[in-house]
Design brief:
Elements (H helix, E strand, L loop, with lengths): L7 H16 L8 H30 L3 E5 L9 H7 L3 H11 L3 H5 L11 H16 L3 E6 L7 E5 L2 E5 L12 E2 L5 E5 L2 E6 L5 E6 L2 E13 L6 E11 L5 H5 L3 H4 L1 H9 L10 H27 L8 H4 E6 L6 H12 L4 H11 E4 L10 E3 H7 L1 H21 L4 H7 L2 E2 L2 E3 H8 L2 E4 L2 H11 L1 H6 L4 E3 L6 H7 L2 H11 L20 H26 L8 E6 L8 H17 L8 E6 L7 H18 L8 E6 L4 H10 L2 E4 L11 H7 L3 E4 L5 H8 L5 E2 L4 H10 L4 H7 L1 H9 L14 H7 L17 H16 L1 H13 L6 H13 L9
Parallel strand pairs: 1-2, 1-11, 2-10, 11-12, 12-16, 16-17, 18-19, 18-21, 19-20, 21-22, 22-23
Antiparallel strand pairs: 3-4, 5-9, 6-9, 7-8, 9-10, 13-15, 14-15
Helix pairs in contact: 1-2, 1-4, 3-20, 6-34, 10-12, 12-13, 12-15, 14-15, 22-25, 22-33, 23-24, 23-30, 29-30
Length: 819
């Protein structure tokens, strides 16, 4: 249903009826939270018809289907996005006005879906939006986490993790699909039986099992009647309660199965710095992969008899190494349950699976101890061993005597199962997520694989959905853009290029500045409400929001803030543009130095924000619990986008794209997708600094960087670093930030110091920041450059990325749905 077909009267009655049915109240008595539920169910009614029609059309056309396998889907909130995509914003806003409610307030009642945590999960969500909006058959497959990652609280400057109970009021959009439940087996042993024809049969015994039950969530395409599905799996015990054990007094045993099921779906990515965490994480991966692949094979078999032709109708995309067990699991199903020979099964699997690598960081290329992997997944481990045996044979055949190749490419080596190696060997396509990242994979991280099978490798630069991050997140700018060039950009972002014609126009610049100012006022109110800090909307909003990791260099940013503060203390009349530094980031629960960096940012904020002598020239704000819904407020208000990762470390980045689309200028290194952003917008409309990827790699290879040289020779940097350990920002505990100081200098250890080159890039960063200061004073130049950033963001739509995947990897056919 598109907006112009919308029946306001009927919708209004439905909302009032839902309030009555759900809460035994009239609409006048309902709270905003209750109205949210009522509106969500009414919108779901509209969607359901499209959902049924979509899947009927897919069945009719027997369309090839993508299963996008991901541990994370960072969807944000659903209601606002669904209303936009059924093109009924105006009508629903009017209905709610008539009922005495504000649509924005109602949207705020919804919890963000706690199904992801960072760029990888947000990318998956953008891809689902693009696939539906472009009309391609696809399922997202993941886990229905009960508590997500965590809700971040800042207490006394520290990150505190509390459960994010996002499902406590239920999810009005989900549909439980009991009929597709699957059995998932862990542990036990594998018995081999030989039949009369001499064929071996592998039987897993003495295992523990859980039931995987799918919940379907609608993924609504923009104005095209298409509704795809995000299928997230919940875990339930096979037998809820063992009454016999309970009667014997074995109370723990009575609920053992229930506890196993509960822990699998409790939290996203359990902290794996201890053995139990590692085991649970592997359980989670196998749980949702086995369930998803059983479902995909079952769905195929309902219409087709020959599983040898599965690749004609099904493709599995592995979103990073987490879903790699899909390769041996599909082998298991084909061999053990469908009677395939090894070679026939391998031929099918290697035509069905494709792998996206998101990182060059070694710790993200998962490895599992053999002992754990083989105990938890005994049959899967046998299959992985056989894949490895055959692959190593092939390596030795191609490279006689090349034991160095065997060492780097083996799937099982040094007591570990290497998931990235398995993903490359078992997939027909391996892609990076930015041009620079893919080159680094080919030349360094996966160099030997590229040498042996170059045809598998390709690049797919990441993208974001303009429907979420401009149309929904920045209504004022979206309306302005549409007013200038029409609304084609909503489904064809490159069309936004036409905006460049207006970049030099004085009146347009003034209109753009006013929109930015209104968005800044909105964020100022949010900061006052949530942080209690008064921020000047006329100051330059300097924004770094993303996961907190050392390579993303939030530390470089805050060290530079400390340096600026020192300059202002020495000369309170120093001529500088007032600036508000805005940080937003969660640190992984077990990542000590990242959590300490959050404490440092907040400690610096406490000192600076409460020092009247600097006349408000600097404010520092840490946004608590950074997530999709508050990200939309931040992107819309940002002037400057901090993309300052150590060159060669960031796979792609997507906050860089979201900020660009909202008219922020980039200060950044030539890393990840920054390289391509600069190509699109022109180096003159960005602030680029620091070492190149090649320089970083050469510096590491030659081992010729000593941060102590900088410490000894640069008085300003030395002063900043000494403030980490002299109590300037922690008078009650001067040693509090010693670990950060040591990570930068580490004079008493053989460990490498300043691994991410914060000090080496510091002066170049400072110089770029003064260029920003100078440029921001020229209002006309800044507005023109900001409009050009919006106008040149067309390449970075996830629609473009998905189109490339479809053309080069997935080979799906577009399906038209009419009601």
């Amino acid at each position: 249903m598109s907006g112009y077909q919308f029946n306001k009267k009927q919708f209004k009655q439905e909302v009032a009826g839902n309030v009555k049915k759900l809460y035994r109240r009239t609409i006048e008595e309902a709270s905003p939270k209750q109205v949210f539920q009522a509106v969500a169910y009414a919108v779901k009614d509209v969607i359901i018809d499209e959902w049924i029609a979509t899947h009927r059309e897919y069945e009719k056309q027997d369309a090839k289907t993508l299963y996008y396998l991901s541990m994370e889907f960072l969807m944000g909130r659903a209601l606002g996005n669904n209303i936009i995509n059924i093109r009924a914003v105006k009508e629903i806003r009017e209905v709610l006005d008539e009922l005495g409610f504000d649509l924005n307030v109602i949207e705020d009642q919804e919890s963000d879906y706690a199904l992801g945590n960072g760029g990888l999960g947000r990318l998956a969500a953008c891809f689902l939006d693009s696939l539906a909006s472009m009309g391609y058959p696809a399922y997202g497959c993941g886990i229905r986490y009960k508590y997500g990652l965590f809700k971040q609280k800042i207490e006394n400057g520290y990150q505190v993790e509390i459960p994010d109970n996002w499902l406590k009021d239920g999810n009005p959009f989900e549909v439980r699909r009991e009929e597709y439940a699957a059995l998932i087996k862990f542990g036990g042993n594998v018995r081999v039986e030989c039949d009369s024809s001499g064929r071996n049969h592998f039987i897993q015994e003495n295992y523990q099992s859980v039931r995987a039950v799918p919940y379907d969530l609608p993924v609504v395409g923009y104005g095209n009647n298409v509704v795809n599905t995000l299928m997230v799996w919940d875990a339930e015990p096979v037998d809820t309660f063992n009454l016999d054990a309970f009667d014997k007094g074995e109370y723990n045993n009575a609920v053992e199965q229930e506890n196993l099921a509960k822990t699998i779906v409790e939290v996203l990515y359990p902290n794996d710095n201890h053995y139990a965490g590692k085991e649970l994480r592997l359980k989670q991966q196998y749980f949702f992969i086995s369930a998803s692949i059983q479902r995909a094979v079952g769905k195929y078999k309902a219409k087709h008899s020959d599983l040898h032709k599965l690749p004609d109708k099904v493709v599995f995309q592995l979103n990073d190494t987490h879903p790699t067990v899909a390769i041996p699991e599909l082998m298991r199903i084909l061999i053990d349950e469908e009677g395939f020979s090894w070679d026939d099964a391998w031929a099918v699997v290697t035509k069905c699976c494709a792998y996206t690598n998101h990182t060059v960081m070694a710790e993200a290329l998962e490895k599992w101890p053999i002992e754990l992997f083989s105990r938890l997944l005994p049959r899967i481990y046998q299959i992985v061993e056989e894949i490895n045996r055959r692959f190593v044979e092939e390596v030795r055949r191609i490279y006689p005597g090349g034991e160095d190749k065997v060492r780097s490419m083996s799937i099982i080596y040094d007591g570990q199962v290497k998931m990235a190696n398995l993903a490359v060997v078992g997939s027909f396509s391996v892609n990076g997520v930015a041009a620079l990242h893919t080159e680094i994979l080919k030349k360094r991280v996966l160099k030997d694989f590229y040498g042996m099978m170059p045809w598998k490798f390709n690049n797919k630069t990441n993208g974001i959905t303009q429907r979420r991050f401009l149309l929904h997140g920045n209504e004022l700018l979206a309306d302005w853009v549409t007013g200038k060039i029409g609304d084609e950009w909503i489904t064809d972002l490159p069309y936004i290029k036409k905006l460049a014609l207006f970049a030099g126009d004085e009146k347009c610049q003034q209109e753009f500045r006013n929109i930015k100012y209104q968005n800044k006022l909105r964020l100022v109110r949010y900061i006052k409400e949530n942080n209690g800090i008064d921020v000047d909307p006329r100051s330059l909003f300097d924004v770094q929001v993303k996961r907190l990791h050392e390579y993303k260099r939030q530390l470089l940013n805050i060290l530079h803030v400390m340096y600026l503060y020192n300059m202002l203390k020495d000369d309170p009349d120093m001529d500088m543009v007032p600036r508000t530094f805005i940080f937003g980031a969660k640190a992984a629960a077990g990542y000590r130095i990242a959590k300490l960096t959050i404490k440092l940012i907040n400690s610096v904020a406490d000192v600076i924000n409460n020092d009247p002598s600097i006349k408000g020239k600097i404010k520092v704000v840490f946004i608590e619990d950074y997530r999709v819904s508050n990200a939309e407020l931040i992107y819309a208000a940002a002037d400057l986008s901090e993309q300052i990762s150590t060159a060669s470390r960031e796979g792609s980045g997507t906050s860089n794209m979201k900020l660009m689309l909202n008219g922020a200028l980039t200060i950044g290194t030539m890393d990840g997708a920054n390289v391509e952003i600069v190509e699109e917008v022109g180096r003159e409309n960005a602030f680029i600094f620091g070492m190149s990827a090649d320089e970083v790699i050469a510096c590491e290879t030659n081992n010729d960087y000593n941060p102590m040289d900088i410490f000894n020779n640069d008085q300003d940097i030395r002063r900043v670093l000494m403030q980490l350990i002299n109590g300037s920002y922690a008078p009650e505990n001067p040693e509090l930030f010693r670990d950060i100081y040591n990570s930068l200098l580490n004079t008493r250890s053989t460990d490498k110091a300043d691994t991410y080159f914060n000090l080496k890039d510091f002066r170049a960063y400072d110089e770029a920041q003064w260029q920003v200061d100078k440029a921001y004073r020229d209002e006309a130049w800044w507005a023109e450059a900001a409009i050009l950033n919006v106008a040149n963001s067309g390449k970075f739509s996830s629609d473009r990325t998905v189109r490339q995947y479809i053309d080069e990897i997935w080979h799906l056919d577009k399906v038209e749905v009419s009601l």
